[in-house]
Every structure is written in C-alpha cells, then in structure tokens.
Amino acid sequence: KAFKETNNKNFLIAAERGIKYLLVAQYKNGGWPQFYPDLGSYRHLITYNDNAMINVLNVLYDLGKQINNFEVVDSKLIPKANESVERGIQCILETQIKVKGKLTAWCQQHDEITLQPAAARKFELISLSGNETVGIIKFLMRIYNPSKKIVCAITNAVEWLNIVKISGFKYIDIDDATQPNGKDRVVVKDSGSTIWARFYEIETNKPFFCGRDGIKKNSVAEIEHERRVGYGWYSTAAKSLLEKDYPTWLKKNGK
Description:
Strand order of the largest sheet: 6-7-11
Largest sheet: 3 strands, antiparallel
Distance between the termini: 36 Å
Number of strands: 11
Number of helices: 8
Shape: globular
Strand content: 15-25%
Mean pLDDT: 97
C-alpha cells in the first residue's frame, strides 16, 4: 500500500523480503512456528496463538489472489504463496482436535512433529481455544470453492463454539483500590451478553484458568492479579462470527 501511494520502490522491496521470510519460515507440514529462526523454548511450536499463523496465511492468500494491494508484488512469488497456503490449510485440517470421533476446535499451539495440541507458557496449558478458533474459522471461510473437508472443519468448529458459549455474563475491568494498579478484571452477570473462555478442557469442554504457577483453576478470580488483568481470559470474538459471518458464508457454501 505504501509503495502504491508513494511509488517508492524501497517499500515494495521491503514487503517482498518479508514475504520471502514467511515462505522460508514455514514447516514442510504447513505450519509456522511462533518465531523464526529462533526456535528455542516453546517458539518452535505451530502457533495459532494471537492469530500468528492465520495472519501469515491471510497475507499469502491475498498475494496469491492478488488482492488488497498485493497485485504490485513480484509475480514470481504468486505460485509459491499459493502452494504455501495449500500446505497451511492442510495443517489446519490435520490439527483440528477430535473428541470421541467428532471434530471440535484447535489448541493455541500444536507440536510441529506430531501435530498434537501442546502447552506453551506456564499459564497456557493444552486446551481447546475459544479465541484462536475464531480466527482459524474466519480464514477458512475466505477459501473460494472450499472442499468438503474445509466445509466440515468450519461447520464442526462453529457447532463447538455454540456448545461452549457462556450466556448471561460479561468480562469487564472495574476500579478496585485494593489492587496494585487500582484495577481488577471480573466476570459479572449480564443477561444480554455472551462470552467464550480462552481455554476449555478437551475432554469436558469445561473452562479453566491458570496463573504463572501452572496450576489449573476453575475461575479467573482464583489466579493472581497480575495474570488476571494481564491476559485475555474471555473473548467475544465468536459473537459476530456466529451471528453474521457464518450465516453469510453458509448461504454461499453450505454443502
């Protein structure tokens, strides 16, 4: 976009370097690590957390389709981007977690070798993610003429989001003079609100929370203040997906 507005080739060169970096960083199985080339600690894991892998796929998908300003990029990168996206989609399909034979959602991180769900930081245990799953679904819904496997992945993940939604509550910041920064973050009743937990147990769909001690808790109030206010334990991202995006997609692609 900057190149189109200024005709300064340095912007285009920089963008193309970034694209080449993304292509090199991809694993053969289609996933991306959180960091590259530094793969230390949990950085080597295939990372859906904070839409890391999905953001990459959206860039490469736009390049392959030559949309959203990517039509100015070197055309030699287009087939590479398309091939990369195909592998990325295959990785997404293979990492969708099955519970009792039924497809559900995704974990924030997956092992780059086994593709199984994996833990990252002390407070990021193995789970089904009520947040990252939304970004994955939205990307899959961008795919033109989706395969039956993609349609199946989307519909099952949407069904799971409907099952685990928490109606009648909202997650808000409040003033609290007893806390270190004078603030706290709590769940309160609200008949018009719906939220989704960041983490759900894979076998039970039960929401859980975890502080820096790595011990699973049943409520966000049980973890230390620093983690309670410093991490997104609930999300409303699935609301617009379920109410607007998915119904629109279903009319075009329901199979």
